[in-house]
Write a structure and sequence with these properties.
Blueprint (H helix, E strand, L loop, with lengths): L1 H4 L13 H13 L12 E5 L2 E4 L4 E4 L2 H4 L8 H11 L13 H13 L7 E6 L2 H16 L3 E5 L8 H6 L16 E4 L13 H18 L6 E6 L2 E2 L5 E2 L2 H14 L2 E6 L13 H6 L6 E4 L10 E6 H4 L15 H16 L2 H18 L6 E7 L2 E6 L10 H13 L2 E2 L1 E3 L5 E4 L7 H21 L1
Parallel strand pairs: 3-15, 5-6, 5-7, 7-10, 10-11
Antiparallel strand pairs: 1-2, 2-3, 4-12, 8-9, 11-12, 13-14, 14-17, 16-17
Helix pairs in contact: 4-12, 5-12, 8-9, 14-15
């Protein structure tokens, strides 16, 4: 299995998609809703490490990783062995009916790792990031006995009814309303697009004041249960929340008895240079009250988590939490092994190194005149493409062309951002140095080619 793990990108067919992939993509069009959109010429046969082989033998370097799911890499032998061993005993026990030790053991590990406030912590599991965020809101409302929440511009929290209301970009919710009420939106500190003439420090103060204005314009603070924020916005464009702003929001929450919820669905599990961005928050004295995680928690198995203090968790009435497949035994076995791998191979440390190399290289591409901003934490980094670095006019046409050109040359990348003009870097943290450099070369060549045709 290891030859793919150390391979470099290589396109073997004359065109992409190749003949086998084309056949499957046609079948997909007939069998699957068009709304489950995919614009990539990619039909996966197998994956190892940071590499994917398609059904025609083409080899791709994956900088998307299932949108942040594959931090530990594809086909980790330890994970495969753990899931196989569990599968031979039983697949599933519903925790409302019986108990399986994997759920308990994983909750114990999460309670040690997750940097939320409280001496004693508790963790519950569900199946997706959206479910985790929705349960965090349910828990916050039960604990505070308040009806409202505050979210932010640029936010993405999921596609359930509640999380569509919480998500800023309504293209994800088109024609699906009405949505739950009691969801109010503040302005996220997007420093690259801060008001003209402001320094970063002045902009942080401006965004703090804009946050306070929500209490005047939308909901008095005594009716707000929680503030839900992504430490680094994902779909919003890989925008880190400035730590001074987080500290101010934490202080405001404390003054009004509001819970601070960190949505680490995409930022968690080593991506930031630490296991969670909330560790940076804790070091700065502004740890969240509740934290959600998912994506890379179980190396691709459906699983997500909500962690908070025992006091907060125990405020919920019996029967209000849980679900049929929540904390599935196979997924828990995978997640327990992922945590071991993260620690054994120091993948958070690896994230810091590859993120630094990525940002360093992206700055060298400023010579092309379209790199507006390079930002992020660890290996969760975004590159914002603009038509003019002075006016900062978004360049979504170039972004789309770059993605397709890169894919044709064996590199899978994806966009993000309110204007669709940000390239996100979510490469598996097990990528080799040689693979990373090959990807950077493809990226530059694709950028140069795309600029000639856009």
């Amino acid at each position: 299995m290891t030859e793919l793990k150390y391979a470099l990108p290589e396109i073997k067919t004359e065109t992409l998609p190749g003949p086998n992939a084309s056949d499957i993509i046609k079948r997909r069009e007939n069998a699957i809703p068009n709304a489950i959109k995919c614009g990539y010429p990619l039909v996966v046969k197998r994956g190892e490490g940071a590499m994917i082989e398609d059904v025609d033998g083409n080899i791709f370097l994956d900088w998307v990783g299932g949108v942040g799911v594959m931090n530990a890499g594809y086909s980790q032998p330890e994970v495969i062995a753990a899931v196989k061993e569990q599968s031979e005993r039983f697949f599933h026990v519903m925790m409302n009916i019986g108990t399986h030790e994997g759920y308990v053991a994983l909750a114990e590990e999460m309670n040690k790792l997750v940097p939320v406030r409280g001496e004693t912590k508790k963790t519950m599991f569900v199946n997706s990031g959206a479910e985790a965020d929705e349960n965090a809101v349910k828990i916050a409302k039960q604990y505070t006995k308040r009806p409202n929440i505050i979210v932010f511009s640029g936010a993405f929290h999921g596609r359930t009814a509640m999380t569509m209301a919480m998500t800023s970009k309504k293209a994800y919710a088109y024609g699906m309303g009405p949505f739950p009420d009691g969801v109010y939106r503040a302005e996220f500190p997007y420093l690259y697009r801060k008001p003209n003439g402001m320094s970063d420090d002045e902009a942080v103060e401006y965004y703090i004041e804009r946050f306070k204005a929500v209490f005047e314009e939308c909901s008095p603070p005594e009716f707000v249960a929680a503030v839900v924020v992504e430490p680094v916005q994902g779909e919003g464009g890989f925008i880190p929340a400035p730590i001074e702003w987080v500290k101010a929001v934490r202080k405001i929450c404390d003054e009004h008895g509001i819970l601070l919820v960190a949505d680490e669905v995409q930022t968690g599990f080593g991506r930031s240079g630490k296991m969670f961005v909330s560790e940076y928050w804790k070091e700065a004295g502004c740890a969240p009250d509740i934290m959600t995680s998912a994506k890379s928690i179980a190396a691709g198995a459906p699983l997500s988590a909500v962690t908070a203090s025992a006091e907060i968790m125990n405020s919920c009435r019996a029967g209000t939490l849980g679900g049929t497949f929540s904390g599935n035994a196979l997924a828990c076995a995978s997640a327990l092994e992922v945590i071991k791998i993260m620690e054994k191979y120091n993948l958070p440390g690896r994230a810091a190194k590859i993120g630094m190399r990525f940002r360093e290289f992206m700055h060298t591409l400023e010579k092309y005149g379209v790199i507006g901003d390079v930002r992020g934490i660890g290996a969760m980094t975004g590159v914002e493409l603009v038509k003019d670095v002075k006016t900062k006019e978004p360049y979504p046409e170039l972004t789309a062309k770059l993605i397709q050109t890169a894919a044709q040359n064996g590199l899978i990348i994806e966009n993000a951002g309110t204007y669709g003009n940000v390239i996100r870097f979510l490469c598996p943290l097990v990528v080799t140095d040689e693979q990373l450099e090959a990807g950077l070369k493809i990226f530059e060549n694709a950028l140069a080619a795309a600029l000639k045709t856009v």
